[in-house]
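Run log, item B.
One chain of 153 residues. Sequence copied directly from the ordering sheet:
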Amino acid sequence: MAARSRPVDAGGERLGLAIKRAEQVLIAEKTRVLRPFGLTVAQYAAMVVIAATPGISGARIARQGNVTPQTMAVVLAGLEAKGLIERQPSGDHAQVLVTRLSRAGQALFRRADAAALEVEQRLAAAFSDAELATLRELLARATAAIPAPAAAS
């Protein structure tokens, strides 16, 4: 499909502002529901990735979270200080630390994830199944439309 040029603010607010507003509302509500668990949204997001991929490196978590490795190192250090994750040298590369949820981290994650999923379920309930499928497709296209600058490793 050929790219079409059109004003981003035709007929309303700028597209970037509309997307940012939706993100801010979602993050604010996730922040509220995660607070009782002592987690930030960034910590929770890292735990989602770690729970899905035990033994993952910090660099891979950063790539999946679209943040720098340095930013993720700070997030992981906070989780490790709370005893929620365990990191140890990789069997393949001694310089690489692999990350897993600790037993306490698994228990906390299950409870925090239920609270965060409830927020996402409220969001999803605002749309029909067909609208949700379209929204996911549109968001994927929006994400792909703007190439990210080369990530620093």
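Observations after the first pass:
- The chain has a mean pLDDT of 90.
- Residues 103-124 form the longest helix (22 residues).
Flagged for discussion on Thursday.
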